[in-house]
Structures are given as C-alpha cells and as structure tokens.
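Per-record layout

source: Nibea albiflora
name: Interferon-induced protein 44
length: 139
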Amino acid sequence: YSTYKIEKGGSESFYPFVFNDIMGLDTDKGVLVGDVKLALRGHVKDGYTFDPESKLSKGDQFFKDSPSNNDKVHVLVCVVPASTVSLITDEAVRKIREIRKEASDLDGGVQCTGGHSMNCIFPVKNYHEENNGTVTLTH
C-alpha cells in the first residue's frame, strides 16, 4: 500500500490529495476484497504489503484503529490495461462489483454499475515524460 503526494512546483508544498496504490485483483495472487474494504475505510497504513492468503486484522502494526477523514478513500479508480480487458475473469469482475458496492455503501458517490457504462471509462496514456516538457511523472 503506497501513498504518493504530488508536489506543487517542487516547492515542498503538496496538492491537498494523495494517491494510494494497491496490488491488482488477480484471482490467484491478488489483493483480497476484505483488504480493499479496509483501505476504503482508512484502516490500512502506508507501507503495508497485501497478503493474498490472509486479510489485515486489528492488532497488526499496519492496521489503523481510528482513521481520520483524510485517511479514508474519497475517489476510487480501477485501472485495467486495455490489452487485457478481454482476459478479465468472472472472479475479477465479482471482486470489482463487491468493492464498488462497498464504496457505494460508504457514500463514495460511485455511479458506475457492474458493466461500467462508456461515460465511466477514461482511456489514459501511460507515459513518463511528454516531449514538450509540460508533463513529467516519476515513481
């Protein structure tokens, strides 16, 4: 579970949001739906390594007992490479639907339904640098 802050012009000040990244939903070795639900509620600390065999639990050093509003997820994005869309298993779709339902139950404002309407799909170019120098993304 990695948290990324975006600097404002390299001045040690940051935009008022962060990105959190988790491992994929692969059926055999992907993140457990229960762990995603905990992350949505803000219970997962930065640096946690998801275990596909067992869910994070209270008492673990990476479990946040009393998350603040800033720890909670307010926007949920599921990224699927266009080249693998046809390979998504029924189990992965089930996981996505279960996570979407949890987000909706948390008043996450999720509007897409299971099949995701076209207005909810946003193709994104994957790049590190743009030639004109206006966009630079680093890891």
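summary: The mean pLDDT is 79. The CA atoms of residues 40 and 73 lie 5 Å apart.
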